[in-house]
Amino acid sequence: MDKSPAAFRTISEVSETLDVPAHVLRFWESKFPAVKPVKRGGGRRYYRPEDVTLLVGIRELLYDDGLTIKGVQKIFREKGARHVTRRGAEHLGEALPEDAAPAPSPAPAPAPAPAPAPEAEAAPEPVLDLAPPAPARAPEPAPPATESATTEAEPDPAPAPAEPDPADAERIRAAISRLEALRDRLRSEPAPRS
Question: HTH merR-type domain location, by residue (predicted)?
Answer without folding.
Answer: 10-78
